[in-house]
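User: Second chain of the day. Same drill as before.
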Amino acid sequence: MSSKNKSPKRVLISFLGNINYDTRGANLCSSLKADGLEVDTLSFDWVQRKPGGEIPVIRLDKSKSSLLFYFKFLFSVTFKLIFNKYDLYIASDIYNLPILALFAEFRGKPLYYDSRELFRYLAGLKNKVNVQWLLAKIEESFIVKCDKIIVTGMMDAEVLMEDYGIAPEKFILLRNLPKPVKTFEKLDLRKLYGFPENSLILIYQGVILKGRGLGKLISLLPTLEDVCLVILGDGDLRPELENYVTDLQMTHRVKFAGTISQSELLSYTASADIGCVLIENISRSYYYALPNKLFEYIAVGVPVLASNLPQMVQIIDEFGVGKYVDPEEQDEIVDTIELLRNPEFRNTIKANAEIAHQRLNWDDEYALVRRYFI
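Assistant: Same format as last time:
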């Protein structure tokens, strides 16, 4: 049969989350489709919000029982796998890894594991020893069955090599980079939220969880004149932080925007003066963090205020796109925000970020590894 008549390669990407709100997952789907692959997705959501994009999403209820939630998730994945055959299986998290590993092995097809986090070291599991143990056992059992392991940073690969004795050639580096940004519309956040014209606007985007530095940042606002904060995203910690903002009488300077779709996100980001990534060193997963928000700030020329964690330090030192601090040192955070208040200094960083984005973008990164997918 000629290659002209050959059916396109079928790929399944399964992710316990809404891919429409996940830059990494959405970009991978887009790139694989652009390469002519037939991409099927399993995507889930348990938060009431807009669809967020064109990828179909299975709605789950997480409010009643965690066990029932995971049972429905596994049933949905299993049902899909029984009635469909694929040429490549991509487990986009540890929760999908076991079931996709079983079907990939049964079908005799390759399995890729997107280790977008160091799952056995998740910060949210710090006090859940039994769950940590279970995830470690699951990962240990099934990661060895993977043909390739995709990581967001090479330090993550080093940890997995150390933990499981995996050969270096099994890893694919695919960082959480945004698509190349050529043009974007800025929102007027001062007008939108009633901030003073001379205010300095900080922005945070991502899940609102413990260890993201938001409580520490909010606590400093009373000592920072004309500094406002916009928080994009949702999460378990949001109600607590909203109450904290009210207690500090800072509701006029801190605004919770909720979850913003991928199509609108950079318009918010570009309108800020400083992008915050003050991740705290409360777990090994956080210690090696290299989140997409860091690169999204860079993409639109917003100076980064980051934690002094190794993979983020590496990027900031190499490209000169911001400053990093010890998130436990309040005075250091305040002094650095005051330094970044200087418009000339921010303009220098903006110019550096423009150059950096020419290298730190998804299309260039994917081009280096596309051979593993097509």
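The longest strand covers residues 38-45.

User: Great, on to the next one.
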